Each structure stands twice: as structure tokens, then as C-alpha cells.
Amino acid sequence: MDLKLIDNKGTNTLEQLIKENVTSDSKISIQTAAFSIFAFNALQKELKRSKELRVILTKSFFEREETGFLKRYEIAQSEEDISGNHYEIKLRNKMDTAFIAREIAKLITEKVKIHQLNSNQNALDELLVENNKEPEKNIIVPSMFKFTSDGLGITESNNVSSMTGIIGAEDHLKLLKADFDQVWSDPKKSKDATEKVLEKVRTIYQENSPEWIYFVSLYHIFHDKLEELDEQDIAPDGSGFKDSVIWNKLYQFQKDGVMGLIRKLEKYNGAILADSVGLGKTFSALAVIKYYELQRKRVLVLAPKRLRDNWTVYTTPDKRNILNDDYFNYTVLNHTDLSRYRGMSGEIKLDTFLWSDFDLVVIDESHNFRNNDTNVNRETKTRYERLMDDIIKAGRRTKVLMLSATPVNNRMKDLKNQIGFITEGDTTALADYGIKDIDTELRLAQKSFNDWMELEENERTTQKFLDSVNPGYFKLLDMLTIARSRKHIEKYYDTDSLGDFPERLKPITVKSDIDATGKFPPLQDVYDKVGGLTMAMYQPLQYVLPAKRKYYEDLYDTKVQGGKSAFKQADREQALAKLIQANLFKRLESSIYSFGLTIERMVDESKSILQKAKSRNIDNSRFKSISDFDDEELDSAFEDSSVGKKTKILIGDMDLIRWSQDLEEDLEVLEWLKDASAKVTANKDAKLLDLKKLLRAKYGHPINGNNKKVIIFTAFADTANYLYEHLASIVKARHGLNSALITGGAKSNQSTMPGVNVSDMNDILTNFSPISKGRDQINPDATEEIDLLIATDTISEGQNLQDADYLVNYDIHWNPVRVIQRFGRIDRIGSRNARIQLVNFWPNVDLDTYLNLEQRVKGRMVMLNTAATGEDDLLNIQENREMNDLKYRKQQLQQLQNEVIDLEDVSGTISITDMTFNDFKADLQNALKDREKDLNEAPLGMFAVASSRELPEAEPGVILVLKQATEDIGKENGILPYIVIYMRSDGSVKLNYMYAKQVLDYFKKLSLGHKDINQPLVDDFYRQTDGGKDMSSYSELLSSAIEAIRGKRDEVGIASMFSPGGTSVQTELVDDLEDIELISFLIIR
């Protein structure tokens, strides 16, 4: 008997010992917890020559405990696998695993018998080689034996202990073999597993469909996101969450979104829900609130004032509260309450309100907080600062959930300010998750967007932007946002259980004249007259004598940028004047009545000021200021005759002659416009007559059964009142239908339906849309309904009015997003209407005239705004920056004339839904429902063959799915530690690892839906590779890919030295094949 210490170094390996001692007389018995096809392959010649080979597996390879998705994945990955372990990566990366597996399957079928030790038994690893004819060649390797490449010494491992090999020892071998035989033959101790092992080996070499390899790849890449999909892990049975009323009212896509939001809130302390219009963000948020309330957490909801009732209704014992049994107890305040320090908001006393005492803040319409005007010296905090300082940073650690109605963002700073709520303003807060500096990522993304906007119209595609934007931006959005589009929901969820979205009929476009008799002056003449107004009465500081200007500058100018610059009050007045001019154009577009009313007010005010100037009594006159208005209030700012702050100017300081001359010149034009407008009475109003014609057609020929419900939107309360005055009585008398008017103020709302509380907007909406608003639970005896609703944009967001099937935009907003949001009131999932109709009234001028007009008026405002503040939008005029590219806006408006578009499909915009990995996770989630066990057991190194002809932009080559051994490098890759790279057949890179989403897009388009194997392609592949034996061309592509990854990392490291927040050049790089693990690959032919 000889003893030999085997250290698996050089030639002193177990592989060598077996090769030297196995003969045709050898009976080999193995007990092992680990074995791989690579070990079989290395000893294939010797094993075929042996007389007998039996293997007892001491660890289960086939059964796994029931746990959560992520745990099951982790257990599967931690186990030794027959397709190779961590130390066999180099062998698997030769990409001939399938060929080896096929050979080993033959070997097992012909020679090998395998048993599995029963779960209640334990046994030590051992190798026994019995040679009866040559007993001196007997081998015993006790206790430390693994039948893998590293166990045999073929590849290196981290094992520093030597094995003991016993050579000869015939008597000792017989004793050990008797024990082995006893375990083998006793069914209570082991059972046959040969066929099960063969099944696993076959999965390695079986031909796979492209779709299956796509799913396997996603399973690995997004395994750490599996917890987001696991409802049981977040809300286990017994927690009460799944028993809540709100949870059981959600659609599955909403439930998935809620689970994702809770995960993000727990992991990152915040999340943004930016689902598209009409996908029920309020209910999703209510479910998140319920989750935290069940944990006894305090919740604050901040909502726009007009949407407050949408939230408070669920906190009170109210007939309208369909969630009453959930006993919601959150607090609701208005956005505007952040600017108040005393008084009451509902039943809450603001003087003593404890803002800092909340665990979760939900911000509805969070895009209203996109601006953070910290550059301006103010005596009080902005709403943004108050929210940040007094709620989020103060007191207990506060999680933030934001609901954004617009998943489209062209100005990255808007997003930065919202993310700031999550990170408490710390731009490095996500460094541990691969985002070293949020500002840097958003700055780079903004540059990419600006460059993209400079492209020619036909080149400015979403894909072009996605190809150029920094991957960190993808990662940032994927971490913090849930953003699903209508198309996403239709594609990934069962619409049978959801209810379909209604079919959108082609929009009806109406271009009405002003005067049915044709006597109103040509529009171009009116535009020229309005554009030529000096607007002297709105900018008195322009007429202060030069010697006196310094005094008024000191008094009224606003310091910005920490006092480095000033925003001049004179410029502010000039900007206001331009805004009012633009407002006149919009009013003329809206209705001749609204335009005439405004002109009449201006005439009266001009006369009043001229009279005061002549009487030298001007020091107490009020001049309008824009500084106190939000975006949503600008349209109605001019309707009130005395708004804003006083700008007092002493009479002796003014050039009264010049001012009076300009006032009189304007008055002459205004009186001409007033006279022309007054002649167009309601019976001559061509636009109103066209609207009446449309309503008659709608009522005479409804598009869904007998549904006669119509919503008419207008930007102006004056127009809304005018329409109600001239439609309500006619609709009641001729069609027997009730009408209602909502303009935002309680006094101005009206209805012809008896018993409606017009001071309660929600009562009007409930009677207009009784099904969607659940009126039968509130007032089951009600029989009458409202069928015509005339409204301003007060209800353009946050309302479900899907009982209606016909929506009229009586005036087109310059921003198409507003038009789409309006339509979202009826274009909603689960609608009872099969079809819905959008009607758009357009000015009867060509689009170029329309846009150039607006640009000319507002251009000066933009310059005034940016000159003082750099990039902060001090005036809060959203439209300013949206009009920078006329071609971009023209294309959007042309789209609206021809089709109803989704918000994320507006031409020339980039949607958050384009930026996340949500579609891939949804594909994986669907695959998990039926194939989780198969995915869990899928071996590494599998591949499929796809055709490049399936996708015109695809090229022959290979998409490689890799995993890097070092996880703390390459964080510019959004799916770390995984790498996906698309290599062309010639060894060049089509898409490098930094563009993970784009590579996955190719993978998806080439694979999803391709459930069958393309046999001619596969046969051709086997002919080229000698049945998969010669994979050298593909392993060379893998080597080239690693070279490309290394080169790109060098480039990124160097570039980061020159970017703000950047780091030094990375020193740890992918050096060779062993630093990269091949997960799967798609061959494209």
C-alpha cells in the first residue's frame, strides 16, 4: 500500500492518477456532492475503457425547497451544476459545451449508472477504483473528492489542502466497496437517478428556440429584481394587506406596480410613479398608503387644490367612499398650503401643523415641483424648499412617493429636482447602487438630448436618442421609476380581465371662421394689430425718466444667483406685457366672445389710466405682476381685473408725454378691435355654429349605443361661460339632456339638472359620469344624468370620466401634452365604450402662421428669463422652453390633426417609458408564471440560432450574455454585474456593453415570439462547426468582445477624469476569459 499526497499542481493531479491506473478491468465507484460534464470529458477515454462506473450523488440535484423567487434563484446558482462550476468558466467559455454534453450523454447511456442518496442519509465523498487483475493499481481517495475539473486538477481552485491517495490496499478497498454496495443496493438509502441526470445533460445540448434563450438570459440578468415581482415576499399572508379593499380593486398591472413601488421605497427611500394617462395612478398610490398604514406609519398626501377631494373622500365615512372598510387615515393638504403659515386648510390649522411628523409623503402631480427657484432671494421659502426642509429633511426619515402625470421629460433639471426629494438633495446618495453622481448623469443626458434636438427631423428618432444617451441615465430611471405605457399594458397583461381600451376613432378636425357672415377683419390683420400694441399700461417702469431709474431698480429688482445678478422689474413688466399679448391670441383662438370681453376690459383700463395720468393721480395705480402665478394659473391671470402687487411710481418721475402717447395709440387699436368683435354676435359666431352642428350629429347618431355624453374643454372660463349660456338651454329643450359648467370656482359652476350641488365639483362629475364615479352607491335612486359637460382645464388631470365617449377641444393648447391629458379623461382602461371620438377645433390659418405668431410674441420673454437666471425658469412659464424648436412643435401638432396619440408617442419627445428595463422585466414575469422551474434548472452556456432577416437593422454575429467576476467595476453598465454585447461576425462590435438596453432590444426583437427552432439555420450552423465541436470562430468572438469591453472601460475611465463628479481611471479591468462567465448566447445568421 502506498500513500500519495495529491495537491493538484503540475502533473501531481488526480486526473493524472486516474489516467495511470484505470484499465479495462477497472470498476469505478464514486460518491460525490459535485460532478460536471467537463470532468467526464477529460476522462472520457479512460471511463469508456473501464469495466463499470457507478456514481452515488450525495447531494440533491433535483429537488429544491419552496421559497421566494430570489431565494430559489440564489439556491440554484450556489449549487454545483453538471454544466460546470465557477472554476470551470474557462472551459465553458470555449463555447463547445453542447458538443461535450452530447458526447457525455452517450457515455452515460452506454457505461454509467447513477444513484441519488436519499435526503435523510449522509455520506462522505470518495473515489474507489478496483482492479482485480492488478490490485496494485487500486485507488482510494477518501472524503475530499469532487468529480469536477477543479477536483481533478484540470483547472485551478481555491482549495489549499492536499488529498490523500491510497494506492493498492486491497483489503481496505474491499471494506469501503462493501459499504458502497450496501448503500447502492438499499432503496432506503439511495435510488436510481440515471435518467434524471441524463435529462439535465440533454438540456445542455438540446436545440433551443431563440425565445427560450431570451428568457433564460433575462432570468439571470434581472434575478435581483425578482423580489420586486414576488408579492408573497413583500406582503405575506396574514399581513392584512392582500385582504384590503383597495388591493382587491386593483388590476394585475397595478398590483405589479404597487409591489415595485414598495420595493423602491424600502430600498431607495423614494419612487416616482409615471404611468401614462388613464392607468389609475391614484388607486395604485392608495394601495401603497394602505401598506404603510398597516405598519402604523403616518402618511401625508400633497395634492393640487382642485384634486384634493379625490383624496379626502377615502378618509371619511362618505357614501362616495368605496374604500370605507379600509379605514384610511392619511392627512391631505394642498400644494399651495406649503406657501401658507397660518389659517385653515380644510379642518387642519396650519399655524400649529407638525409638518415633520410623517413617514411617507405622497405628492400628486409632482411635476408641479419641477422648479426649485433657490437662486432668487426671497423672504419666505418656496414651496419646493418648504417641502424639502420642513417635511423631508426634518423630523423622522421620510419616504417620498411621487405621482407624475407626464412621463415625458425633455429638461433633465426638472427630473433632478424631483429626485432631490428622494435623496434629500444629496447627489451622491445612490453611489452604492452604481450612480456616483446624479447631477453628472442628468447633465450628460441633457447634453445628449440637446444634441439630439439639433438633428434633422427625419433623423430625430427615439432610437437615435437611446443610442447616444449615457447608460447611467437608464439605470437612474430604472431604479426610481415605474413608468408603463398603454401599449405596455395591452402587450403584457390579459385584457380579458382588464377590459379593453376603447378604439380611438380618427380625430375630427374643425377649422372655423370667426364670423359666419365673413365681415370680421382677416385674421392676419388682427394678428398684426395685436402684435403692434406697445402694451404701455402694463410696463410703466419703461417710462420712468432716466435719472430716476436707479431708485426704482433698487426698490423693485430681484436679486438672483446669490446676489450675483438681478432680474429687473422693467424686464419683468415687459415679459408680462408679452404674456398678455400671447393671451390675446389664445383668446381669439378660443372664442370671439372671450377675445372681445378681454379687449373691452383693456379699453376700460386704458381709459382709466389715461384719465389718471391727465389728472396727475397715478401713484396708487395697480400694475399687474407675474411673479405670483403658477403655470396652471397663467391662462386665467388676466381675467381678474386687479391681481398682483403694487408697483408705485411717483408722477414726477415719469415721462408722461411719451407714456400717454403710447397709451392713446394702443387705445385706438383696442377700440377698433372692440368694435369688430362686438359685431360678431352668437348667431353669427361661425365656431359656435359648427359646434352646434357637431352636437346635433352626435345626438342623432351616437357612436356607442345611446351614449350621448360629451365633454367640451376650453382654456378660458369666459369661453366656457359663453358656451354654457348658448348651449345648455337648447340641449335641454331640443334633446332633453342636462348640461353642466365647471370653471374651477364654486360660484361659477352651473347645471340644468335639478338637485345638483353646483358648489361641489365632484357632485357635478358624479352625475355626469355615474358609472365610473360609482353613483349607484351614493344615490341609488337618482335617475337623471348630465350629458353635456363644459369645463376648463380644472378637470383635465386626475379625473376618470370614462362614461363619456366624445370629447371636444374647443381650443387647442400650444402644448400637445395638455390636449392628450384632456383626452385621458375618457380614454381609459376598462371603458364601457367600444369607440371614443376626439374633436379638435383649430384656428383657420396654416400651422406655420400659427406657430410663428406665438414664437414672435414669446421670444422676448424667453430671452428676458434666461438672461437673468441662466437656466432656472424664474417666470415659471412652461411654454417658453417648449417653443424653442418650431419644427418639433409643428410635427406634434400635425400628428394631432391626423391621429390620437399617446403621451409617450408625441413626436420629438423622449418618454421615461423608453428609458427603463420594464418591458424586459415584464417578459420575464410572464415567463416565470409557467416556466420558473425550467428557468431555475436551465444550465449555463446554452445558445440558440436566430435569423438576421427577422430584423432589417440586425447583422450576422452573436449577442453574448456574460457575467463579470468583479462586481465593483464598470458601474456605467446599467445591469452590472452582467454584460450584454452584440458582436458582428467579422469580430467588430455592433453595440458595446454600455448600451445594455439597446442590445436587449435587439435580443428581444430577434427572439420573442420565436418559439420554434429554425431547423435549416441550425443545420447550417452544425455543418459549419462540425456538429458544434469546432466553436473556434465563436470563442474568438468572445475573446474579441472581452477586448472591446476592456478597451471601452479604458475609454470610460479616462473620460470620467474630465467630467464633473468623475473618478480616476479604473485599474481593475477584464483581463482574460476567466474574468468573464458565459451565461448564454444568441447566434445571428
TrEMBL record:
<dbReference type="GO" id="GO:0006281">
    <property type="term" value="P:DNA repair"/>
</dbReference>
<dbReference type="GO" id="GO:0003677">
    <property type="term" value="F:DNA binding"/>
</dbReference>
<dbReference type="InterPro" id="IPR014001">
    <property type="entry name" value="Helicase_ATP-bd"/>
</dbReference>
<keyword id="KW-0378">Hydrolase</keyword>
<protein>
    <submittedName>
        <fullName>Helicase</fullName>
    </submittedName>
</protein>
<dbReference type="InterPro" id="IPR038718">
    <property type="entry name" value="SNF2-like_sf"/>
</dbReference>
<dbReference type="Pfam" id="PF00271">
    <property type="entry name" value="Helicase_C"/>
</dbReference>
<dbReference type="InterPro" id="IPR001650">
    <property type="entry name" value="Helicase_C-like"/>
</dbReference>
<feature type="coiled-coil region">
    <location>
        <begin position="876"/>
        <end position="906"/>
    </location>
</feature>
<dbReference type="Pfam" id="PF04851">
    <property type="entry name" value="ResIII"/>
</dbReference>
<feature type="domain" description="Helicase C-terminal">
    <location>
        <begin position="687"/>
        <end position="875"/>
    </location>
</feature>
<dbReference type="InterPro" id="IPR027417">
    <property type="entry name" value="P-loop_NTPase"/>
</dbReference>
<keyword id="KW-0067">ATP-binding</keyword>
<dbReference type="GO" id="GO:0016787">
    <property type="term" value="F:hydrolase activity"/>
</dbReference>
<dbReference type="InterPro" id="IPR049730">
    <property type="entry name" value="SNF2/RAD54-like_C"/>
</dbReference>
<keyword id="KW-0175">Coiled coil</keyword>
<keyword id="KW-0347">Helicase</keyword>
<dbReference type="GO" id="GO:0005524">
    <property type="term" value="F:ATP binding"/>
</dbReference>
<dbReference type="GO" id="GO:0031297">
    <property type="term" value="P:replication fork processing"/>
</dbReference>
<dbReference type="InterPro" id="IPR006935">
    <property type="entry name" value="Helicase/UvrB_N"/>
</dbReference>
<dbReference type="GO" id="GO:0004386">
    <property type="term" value="F:helicase activity"/>
</dbReference>
<keyword id="KW-0547">Nucleotide-binding</keyword>
<feature type="domain" description="Helicase ATP-binding">
    <location>
        <begin position="262"/>
        <end position="425"/>
    </location>
</feature>
